[in-house]
Structure formats: structure tokens, C-alpha cells
What does this fold into?
Amino acid sequence: MKIDGTGKIGPSGEIPEKKKGEKATGDSFASHLDNAMTGKPEKSSAVGPPMPVSSLRPVGKVGAAFTTKAINQLESMLGDLDIYKNSLANIDIPEDQLKPLGDALMKKKDNLVSLLKMVDDPELKAMITDAVTIVLNENSRSRH
It folds into this structure.
């Protein structure tokens, strides 16, 4: 028996039998199976190979929401880093007033790190990682 996929399905879901002497058209199932087993491409392959599961990412609003949130938090943290840098350069600002700025940066760093695993853009991840590294270095330097 050849599977040709051209048979019509009846109203109750049954596939009518071919009449004796009626030839099936198209390639045989065996030829398709052989081609699949040997890796030979089909004559007209409309469908590509299955997508690996590891490359699946959130799509639509979920992925975009995390990316937008991460970008907003990164911009906020970079703004605070700029204020911190300017405060460090100003000799009129006492050291004890810099501590709250450093603590706020550490909180923002923690929030941003919690979003890092949900961000799928490698460039954004690199920027977040760089900004987090700067905050950690500044925190370490100010504590000693």
C-alpha cells in the first residue's frame, strides 16, 4: 500500500478504500522514509528542521516587558552613577553623605541583576554586566 495523501476523508472521518486496479500517484512512503533515513533532501522541502528547545525565548509582551524594565533600571542606575561620580569629585561633600548614594546604587544593582536572567538581548546583558561591575568595584573601594 502506498500513502499518497490525496485520499478524501468521508463525512464520518473514514478514508475510502482505493478500488482494485486504481494506481496511487506520487512517491512511495518507502522512498520518503529512505530519504529521511539517509539525510537526502526531499524534492520540495517546505519545512525546515525542528528548532532546538534551548533557543526558545519569551515572545511578545513578556520578553519586551522585561527588556523595557531592564533598560529603564539600567538608565536610572547609570544616572545615579553619574551623580555619585560628580559627588566624589566635589571636595565640599562630606564622605558620610556619599554612603546613602552608595547604598542606593547597591539596591539598584540587586534589582537589575534579578532581571538579568530574563533579558534575551546579548548587548543589553553586556551593558548590564558592565554597569553592575562598576557599582561593585565602587562599593568595594568605598568600604575600604
In short: The chain has a mean pLDDT of 76.
